[in-house]
Amino acid sequence: MSDMPDHHNLDIKRVAILFAGGPAPAANAVISTAAFSFLEEGAQVFGIKHGYSRLAEYTAAGPLQEGADYTRFTHDTLTHARSSRGIMIGTARTNPGRHVSSPDHLKDPELVAPLRRVYEGLCSLEIDALISIGGDDTLKTANKLKLFQDNLPADARRFPIIHLPKTIDNDYSGIDFTFGFFTAVETLAEEIRNLNYDAAAGRAYFLCEAMGRSAGWLAYGAAIAGEASMVLSVEDVAGALAEEEVVNQDTGETRKVMALERVVDRMVDMMLA
């Protein structure tokens, strides 16, 4: 029988975890689980505080300060963190890649300056890998930081980036559910159930709006769990419930929007049924 591989002999010895963008339920469960996984493999794990905000301002003259700019995770600091609320390393909406919108921009020193500062800040901690947790903008930033490294000299330090999608909207292909989705559904559903009592008492109806961007997961989940009388999501804006709206008079470009009068008619029909 062959010897089992030594899982504690990793090339990745120092890992940084960063959370950016809006908050989401279960953030600490995700952060602590990722940190525990690497700690169990013998790696050091650093939690970068408040997203990219401090990294985007990094200079060699102003090094990152432990406690203020990052924290070192240990088994003790992570104890009971999985079920705690909030975001243990904070968050921010700083977007160091916002000026980079094409491959050519990666060759412009001024446009990539924030990405370079992020890269240099992480290198100052001798990071071997970065775990990025966030939504669409944070995913794009992770990709741009990877592309920035691709354009560095051959002998430059490089570190892989793993992105973990964060969205309560659950609008992400390739995985079953995004973290925080079920908590968001139950929170909304509880409010809908409460409104049901008021509606019954006053023989009234309440109109509720849910988040979701271009997906109806949250609306449908909350409506089903909250026992709503009716639900309409963006996917339902089709056929008779949709109409075209001109968004550019010069080109005649249109977009599909909700046919409000017909939607209201459907609601009234449901109420009178």
What would you say about this model in short?
The chain is α/β, with parallel strands linked by helices and 273 residues long.
Write up what this structure looks like.
With 273 residues, the chain is an alpha/beta fold. It folds into two domains: 14-165, Rossmann fold; 181-272, no CATH class. The protein is 33% helix and 14% strand. It has seven helices and seven strands, in the order βαββααβαβααββα. The protein has a five-stranded mixed beta sheet with strand order 3-2-1-4-5, with helices on both faces. Strands 6-7 form a two-stranded antiparallel sheet. Helix 3 (113-124) crosses helix 4 and helix 5 packs across helix 6. The longest helix has 22 residues, at 181-202. The radius of gyration is 24 Å and the shape is flat. The chain starts with 13 loop residues before the first strand and ends with a helix. The model has no long low-confidence stretch (mean pLDDT 91).
Q: What is the fold named in CATH at topology level of the largest domain?
A: Rossmann fold
- DSSP summary: helix tally: 7
Low-confidence stretches: none
Largest sheet: 5 strands, mixed
User: What portion of the residues fall into strands of 2 or more residues?
Assistant: 5-15%
CATH class of the largest domain: Alpha Beta
Lateral strand order in the biggest sheet: 3-2-1-4-5
Helix amount, in percent?
25-40%
Number of strands: 7
Note the gap between the termini.
72 Å
Instruction: Give average pLDDT, whole number.
Output: 91
Give the topology string: H per helix, E per strand. Answer: EHEEHHEHEHHEEH
